[in-house]
Amino acid sequence: GSSQSALNFGAGPAKLPREVLEEVQREFLSYQDSGMSLIEMSHRSKEYTKINNDSQSIIRELLNVPSNYKIIMMQGGGCGAFAAIAMNLLNRTGTADYAVTGTWSAKAAKEAAKYGEVNLVFPKANKPGSIPDQSTWKLNPNASYVYYCDNETVDGVEFPYIPETNGVPLVSDMSSSIMTKKLDISKFGVIFAGAQKNIGPSGVVVVIIREDLLGNPMKCCPSVFDFTHIAKENSVHNTPSTFSVYVMEKVLQWIKKNGGLEEMQNQALQKSSLLYNTMVQSQGFYSCPIDENCRSRMNVPFRVGFNGGDEKLEELFLVEAEKLKMYQLKGHRSVGGIRASLYNAVSLADVQLLVKFMNEFQKQHGS
Ligand code: PLP
């Protein structure tokens, strides 16, 4: 029936746990029997203050964030954070190193170049879908920071390791991979993530920053992007997206209840392996253009049709998928093909259904 949830393989905003949405629905009109919706309440109310503090605590707990890191929440999306990173950190030396492995790191590097010097640690990949070996990276010891995107949502490239930077602060965009694996936070200067893939609705960006990196924003940095100021104001400098933070906290509680990051990591590996193995077994009917060592566990781009894909067949694939309520499988407009996103709220059973469909589609169209 219409109340059944769709098989949503969208890249973002993306599927959230059904239980969380139901809980939000139940308390939407009257939060804790107040007769008011949470979204009608002051961001300085005791109710929202608790949500604000609890979200920070659960992020700290799930990711085991050390006490010398601040957790802040801001608006402006991932793209806002691209600028904020530069405006908060570039002042140290005026130059920063960027590893460009796909669409989003390229955008981040372009944005940062408005505020200082940007050095690409390897030339823009002539073959997309790979990460050059770290021994070939040209790191500047004088860089204010080294930047990389942990998971390139559009391209399907995920770092299988945390880069080494010889003491230069490491900055990572984890918008599409936060809370999907265990991390040693002490290796990072800053991690940021838009919530709208694995941890909540759009409208909130989580920033985890080592305290010694605060205190030196550029003069031009707007207060709403000033990490030092936001930290001092406990993320209520101005009106936050209270609804987004409220839902995010519930998603984080759901992650905790469902086995935490260890279990999210297990599931991510199982789900993505199932899909990649299906491609291997298809003998070339399904193909993934990404190097095996950096294939994303979160966003799986692939082509349908022998010899690297057939657009007509891919259109049909999408039509047939939708008949089975499998939605948002179309690849990013810049890449084409198909992309299946397998965030935390997508279950192994969902992926099994996708694989079943893929096998049947191949039987019908793959000879
Ligand atoms: N970084 C990554 C890895 C993303 O996937 C996205 C959006 O999809 C962004 C940054 C940009 O985020 P926003 O649309 O919130 O500005």
From TrEMBL:
Leader peptide range in chain numbering: none
Domain (Aminotransferase class V) ranges: 8-354
Gene Ontology terms for molecular function: O-phospho-L-serine:2-oxoglutarate aminotransferase activity; pyridoxal phosphate binding
Top EC category: transferase
Pathway: Amino-acid biosynthesis; L-serine biosynthesis; L-serine from 3-phospho-D-glycerate: step 2/3
Cofactor: pyridoxal 5'-phosphate
EC number: 2.6.1.52
One GO process term, biological-process aspect: L-serine biosynthetic process
GO cellular component terms, semicolon-separated: cytoplasm
UniProt keyword annotations, A-Z: Amino-acid biosynthesis, Aminotransferase, Pyridoxal phosphate, Serine biosynthesis, Transferase
Reaction(s) catalysed (UniProt annotation): O-phospho-L-serine + 2-oxoglutarate = 3-phosphooxypyruvate + L-glutamate; 4-(phosphooxy)-L-threonine + 2-oxoglutarate = (R)-3-hydroxy-2-oxo-4-phosphooxybutanoate + L-glutamate
HAMAP family linked to this entry: SerC_aminotrans_5 (MF_00160)
Family designation: Belongs to the class-V pyridoxal-phosphate-dependent aminotransferase family. SerC subfamily.
Identification of the protein by name: phosphoserine transaminase
Organism: Psylliodes chrysocephalus
